[in-house]
Amino acid sequence: MRDKDIIKLYEEHEIPQLADELVSLVRVGNIVHLQGEIGIGKTVLVRRIVQALYNDSSFLVKSPTFSIVEEYPEIGVAHFDFYRLEEGDQVEFLDPERYSKMLCLVEWPEKAPEFLKKPDIVVTIQYVDTHTRKISLILKDSLSTG
After folding, report:
1. CA dihedral defined by 36, 40, 45, 46, rounded to 10 degrees?
2. Looking at the predicted structure, is the pLDDT value of residue 88 above 60?
3. Phi, psi of 32 (to 5 degrees)
4. Are 131 and 11 spatial neighbours (Cβ–Cβ below 8 Å)?
5. What confidence score (pLDDT) does residue 2 get?
6. CA 53, CA 16: separation in Å to the nearest integer?
């Protein structure tokens, strides 16, 4: 079987719906790559996924832009943001084995390609206009959309 490609258009206010759809697909041990230009909504999507997993829409989700990773051990999630890494920067201080038992949500994965195994889901976000995003999901064939 080949990987599944899903492409949808979302208005900004529909991001919680997308987060809920992703929550229904992912499980501990999965890796989700989030791709798109700066400011397009990757962190917003991660925030909604984490809040959905906590079942608390007011749960504070910090951006790991400066810390590189934020962990949420109660729900088995690690949120990575490799934006600040420069070419050649190393991430040896991160233990891939530790994160193999967590759902890993990875922003800017192309900046640390050697760190984690291949993704189970790739989410690519592109602008259509000011309020609309084209979001493509590429799912490994072992994942199901129902």
Report:
1. 60
2. no
3. -120, 120
4. yes
5. 47
6. 12
User: What rounded mean pLDDT belongs to the chain?
Assistant: 85
Euclidean distance between CA atoms 84 and 110, whole angstroms:
12
- Alpha-carbon distance of 118 to 31, in angstroms, equals 7
Average pLDDT over residues 67-87: 91
Per the listing, tokens 């760190």 go with 115
Contacts (Cβ under 8 Å, ≥6 apart) of 58? 51
131, 7 Cβ separation under 8 angstroms? no
Greatest mean pLDDT range, 25-34, 123-132, 135-144: 25-34
Residue 4 is predicted with a pLDDT of: 63
* CATH superfamily of domain region 4-139: P-loop containing nucleotide triphosphate hydrolases (3.40.50.300)
The helix/strand count (H/E) of the chain reads as 3, 7
Q: What is the largest CA-CA distance in the chain?
A: 40
